[in-house]
Design a protein that fits this description.
The structure holds 2 protein chains of 2 kinds. Chain A is an all-alpha fold. Chain A contains 10 helices and no strands. Chain A has one domain: Ferritin, core subunit, four-helix bundle (Ferritin). Chain A has helices at residues 2-25, 34-62, 68-73, 84-87, 93-114, 120-148, 152-165, 177-185, 191-208, 231-245. Chain A is globular and about 55 Å long. Chain B folds into 2 domains: 6-86, Fe-S cluster assembly (FSCA) (GMP Synthetase, Chain A, domain 3, 2-Layer Sandwich), CATH 3.30.300.130; 100-158, no CATH class. The chains are: A mainly alpha, B alpha/beta. The interface between A and B is medium-sized, with 27 and 24 residues. The complex binds zinc ion (ZN). Residues 123, 125-126, 128, 148, 150-151, 153 of chain B line the site of zinc ion.
């Protein structure tokens, strides 16, 4: 029971980073300028590195021939625990930045808590990862401000992205049974506690960027329990194709 | 410091970071522990960045370097304590500078420089402090991209972690 919970929690942690990393990977060679392109793929690389650490630990728990790769690439769509936010498409640079920003602020708060996890591996991965994620927050919040408080066009595009993506933000804080277990057992973070800090931070950055949060938002949930948006199938088609078509194929 | 013989230390130091070929992994500070069990040297290394793609190569290079001396080695990847740029040795910092990469400064200097608040990173070409950050992310995960405002040369800065 305990092992199953821990395994599931590691997937919760890894899947958000992995799907966001995959979305950022799609931008390789397509960034709006060279430096930004390199930054986005560097962030993707950080996220995938972190995921490998979570999934190596998960594979050790699962046994039965499981590897980090089989966990990453051979699950069905409803077995992925990532949130709706990270699977949203790269509509334009404004959407990429807002999605990144909404996740980065959460990610930083989460890792700060996980540094004192009772699980040694999770604590070690979090302590390592937070140093990288601090740079991610710096990147996305700087762009948020530059474009939000930029020209009329950049402001409007950013506001449009905020209006579209904000509805996916609070799913990050709606705990699943596994996340409740993790918080109670000291393995994971207490999301209820992080939520008000998150909202305050987001509001502060948004104010600085002269952007507003949409009122009367109907928040969307469900992906953490496997009910993903249509986007997920397309992501997994790219992500899994080679391993499904040519099992155990190596690069 | 590691508790190993001069001979072993020499083998360890012969392996370089594949992405910064002038920098020995010993000067990089990523070799954390070496112990010998039944004739096999178990070497613990720690990644600089979580996604550092050089780790697999470094492990293979270490095993090959030991093999060349007729010794057996195995590699273990450790995550804690997390690597920090403070572990780069003085010699490592000098090697970086000579190679054209500005060596990491303290966390505070770093923050001010990356936020564009202070001119503290020295141009690796002409030595001027009149430089600006172009991007927080550079050609590899561990570097930021800078440009000199005097000689206009772009250069890498090894950012603090
Ligand atoms: Zn110069």
């Amino acid at each position: 029971m305990l092992k199953e919970r821990l395994y599931d929690y590691l997937l919760h942690l890894g899947d958000n980073s992995m799907i966001l990393g995959q979305r950022l990977g799609e931008l390789c060679g397509h960034g709006p300028e060279l430096e930004t392109d390199i930054a986005l793929t560097n962030i993707s690389l950080d996220l995938f590195g972190q995921v490998r650490n979570y999934f190596q630990a998960a594979a050790a728990i699962k046994g039965d021939g499981a590897t980090e790769d089989s966990i990453a690439m051979l699950r069905y769509e409803n077995e992925y625990k990532n949130t709706l936010l990270v699977e949203q498409p790269n509509d334009d640079f404004a959407h990429v930045i807002v999605r990144q920003f909404l996740f980065d602020v959460y990610h930083q708060l989460l890792l700060k808590e996980l540094m004192s996890s009772k699980d040694e591996t999770i604590a070690a991965v979090a302590t390592k990862s937070i140093k990288e994620v601090n740079y991610h927050v710096g990147f996305s919040s700087t762009w948020l401000k530059r474009l939000g408080d930029g020209t009329e066009v950049s402001h409007d595009k950013m506001q449009e992205a905020v209006n579209k993506l904000w509805r996916y933000s609070l799913e990050l804080f709606k705990p699943t049974d596994t996340e409740i277990w993790a918080a109670e057992s000291g393995v994971g973070a207490d999301l209820d506690q992080l939520k008000p800090i998150y909202l305050e931070k987001i509001k502060m950055f948004m104010d600085e960027a002269t952007l507003g949060l949409p009122e009367a938002t109907v928040f969307q949930y469900g992906a953490k329990s496997g009910r993903h948006s249509e986007n997920m199938g397309y992501i997994l088609a790219d992500f899994q194709y080679i391993q499904r078509a040519y099992p155990n194929m190596k690069w | 410091m590691l508790n190993v013989s001069d001979e072993i230390e020499k083998i360890l130091a012969s392996v370089n970071d594949p992405e910064i070929p002038v920098l020995s992994i010993m000067d990089m500070g990523i070799v954390r522990e070496v112990d010998q069990v039944e004739g096999v040297y178990n070497i613990s290394i720690t990644p600089t960045y979580s996604g550092c793609p050089a780790m697999d190569t470094i492990g293979d290079d270490l095993i090959a370097a030991f093999k060349q001396e007729g010794l057996k080695a195995s590699i273990k990847l450790v995550l804690a304590p997390a690597w920090t740029t403070d572990w780069i040795t003085e010699k490592g910092r000098k090697d970086l500078e000579e190679y054209g990469i500005a060596a990491p400064r303290s966390a505070e200097v770093d923050k001010a420089a990356l936020l564009g608040e202070a001119n503290t990173i020295k141009c690796s070409n002409c030595g001027s402090l009149n430089t600006k950050m172009v991007s927080r992310f550079g050609s590899t995960a561990c570097k930021a991209l800078f440009q000199c405002k005097e000689c206009h040369e772009p250069f890498d800065y090894f950012k603090c972690l």
